[in-house]
């Protein structure tokens, strides 16, 4: 059984998670997070911990951002769009159980504390070809998948890498695996 409560968007996501693992979920009911849902997420974070597992699309990222700002310290699990798609739609409900299990196992806690000595710099991003490179988007997709932090544009990935305390060495190792 997964100790943490898993935050998902809806009933179909809950069903997919329960096919993969024994876990309890909190359903957001979409991107308009009601006050009582946010309160349940806050309480769950204090009592058991929370893993946010939203769809790999804009509304999913919006929900993740709202929760991140309101309830610090939650873990975040990411499923790549290509592993959670069916008929042009992307969602947790389309991900196979093994993909969901892997995403939950790789969930990372995001913190706001700064670790200046071992944080990723913008120069690291450039050196690794994650920005200002003809294949930067594809490289960010692959690195985000390898590190379990999901896809983001250059600025978003930069923030995510530091929020999840990914070191420059971890980043370089992930990039080397691309070659």
From TrEMBL:
GO biological process, one term: rRNA processing
GO MF term list: metal ion binding; ribonuclease M5 activity; rRNA binding
Family: Belongs to the ribonuclease M5 family.
Keyword Nuclease: yes
EC number(s) stated in the UniProt entry for this protein: 3.1.26.8
GO CC terms: cytoplasm
Keyword field: Cytoplasm, Endonuclease, Hydrolase, Magnesium, Metal-binding, Nuclease, Ribosome biogenesis, RNA-binding, rRNA processing, rRNA-binding
Family matches, as InterPro entries: RNase_M5, RNase_M5_C, TOPRIM_dom, TOPRIM_RNase_M5-like
Gene of this entry: rnmV
Record protein name field: Ribonuclease M5
Residue span, Toprim domain: 3-86
HAMAP family: RNase_M5
Function: Required for correct processing of both the 5' and 3' ends of 5S rRNA precursor. Cleaves both sides of a double-stranded region yielding mature 5S rRNA in one step.
Compartment(s): Cytoplasm
Catalysed transformations (reactions): Endonucleolytic cleavage of RNA, removing 21 and 42 nucleotides, respectively, from the 5'- and 3'-termini of a 5S-rRNA precursor
